[in-house]
């Protein structure tokens, strides 16, 4: 397929590489400023760097909009494409309807569920791609594109995608914060960071293989009040962490499948 | 070395196998009830199953006490060993002093920092072992034993070990709970569990390579109040999770190195 990409940030960058590696042709790359589009286009075989959202002269079966959430609506309003193109955004948290203003095209969502940074290569085959589209023909075209670069392609409508995002906030954003707290506490006690890494890795591996509620360990689930009180005492210089410790302990003890 | 092991649970089981594989001789295995000690002794080349804590006739350079925390003090009081033996417990949360009652022996701590289950093999070389002892000679003997089965051996006194444990509660016990919440939310939205796994794995990998505070992502750190309000609304049937969401969001925004 011929694909044009709007946005030359982390997502656009990795998508362009993965699509070309799968045999597709990236025909154009747009970004607001020149350096990113020039740099990305130079990495690709036959992509034109585009300085305008008027893409009427660009061959594209699919246009992927990989810009920050806050910029999607403005791109949708300004974009011009050849009739019959499918325009899809790549955001996990924005509804399909945010593309309603796009003219002469079917619209969809093409959301790669992963965190990207330019410096780090991505095994795209392992990245789930979640799709949605306004009609069946557009959905089929996105499915064909998605399955050519990923093993895991699912149709997930906007409503369910919001729940997925909420779930990811707990599993990823909040988890990262707890790992940050843990690292801070190690630092304050002059303990080397690497000591906990095997335990963290094993904990995550176990949580992936089981329902985490059923493999919960630690003082909260054991209701070991001596250790809990001692930990709260050790955190007395950190009232914010004390509050978190207390609430997470209560939550573990109240969880539906807590033993 | 000759090693006797008190306790035939998960820790005793894996320690015995790792020590034998490293060329040591496990000479005796004690447990309160017969089946575990018989089963473990049968797996080992030359271990006697022991039904009493009188080990005066058992050759042991080191006796490792791998029983639940609450049972260590009672074992220490009842244990009898040959003079010159080093007796070490394997607990992360108990001080060295809990072995003060042991007669005719130097005492220590030999703490493998990992979560064990019998069914799952352990790459012991990757498991950090934290040591402490009442005197230098005993410490040296424990160091020799530990370095023969693990690449990572550190001397960590009881006070620092408590901080390590607190840090592990945040990094492992609390993290596991958040992964449980995430799974519950996916289930309630009828979304497949596997969709989030690549994102979780990448999040953890990133948190290991950086200070997690500096790679924090998500609505909290972006101060994206629209998304935060929407998530709180979606959690209205779960007041406990709403409270956790709010407090974790505040904590991310207040963290010392939050951007």
UniProtKB/TrEMBL annotation, chains A, B:
Residues 128-252 form the DUF2520 domain. InterPro entries: 6-PGluconate_DH-like_C_sf, DUF2520, NAD(P)-bd_dom_sf, OxRdtase/DH_put_Rossmann_dom, TM1727-like_C_sf. SUPFAM superfamilies: 6-phosphogluconate dehydrogenase C-terminal domain-like, NAD(P)-binding Rossmann-fold domains. It comes from the Bacteria. Residues 2-104 form the Putative oxidoreductase/dehydrogenase Rossmann-like domain. Transmembrane segments: none annotated. This is Putative short-subunit dehydrogenase-like oxidoreductase (DUF2520 family).
């Amino acid at each position: 397929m011929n694909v044009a990409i709007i946005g030359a940030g982390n997502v656009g960058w990795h998508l362009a590489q993965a699509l070309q590696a799968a045999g597709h042709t990236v025909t154009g790359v747009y970004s607001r400023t020149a350096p990113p589009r020039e740099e990305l286009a130079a990495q690709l075989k036959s992509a034109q760097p585009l300085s305008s959202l008027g893409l009427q002269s660009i061959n594209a079966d699919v246009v992927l909009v990989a810009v920050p959430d806050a910029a999607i609506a403005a791109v949708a309003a300004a974009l011009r494409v050849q009739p019959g193109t499918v325009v899809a955004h790549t955001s996990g948290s924005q509804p399909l309807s945010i593309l309603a203003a796009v003219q002469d095209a079917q619209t969809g969502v093409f959301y790669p569920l992963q965190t990207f940074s330019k410096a780090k290569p991505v095994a795209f085959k392992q990245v789930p791609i979640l799709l949605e589209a306004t009609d069946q023909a557009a959905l089929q075209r996105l499915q064909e594109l998605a399955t050519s670069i990923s093993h895991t392609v699912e149709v997930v409508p906007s409503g369910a995608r919001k729940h997925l995002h909420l779930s990811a906030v707990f599993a990823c954003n909040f988890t990262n914060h707890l790992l940050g707290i843990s690292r801070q506490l190690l630092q304050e006690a002059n303990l080397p960071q690497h000591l906990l890494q095997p335990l963290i890795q094993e904990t995550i591996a176990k949580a992936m293989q089981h329902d985490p509620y059923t493999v919960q360990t630690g003082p909260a689930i054991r209701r070991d009040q001596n250790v809990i009180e001692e930990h709260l005492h050790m955190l007395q210089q950190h009232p914010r962490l004390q509050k978190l410790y207390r609430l997470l302990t209560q939550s573990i003890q109240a969880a539906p499948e807590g033993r």
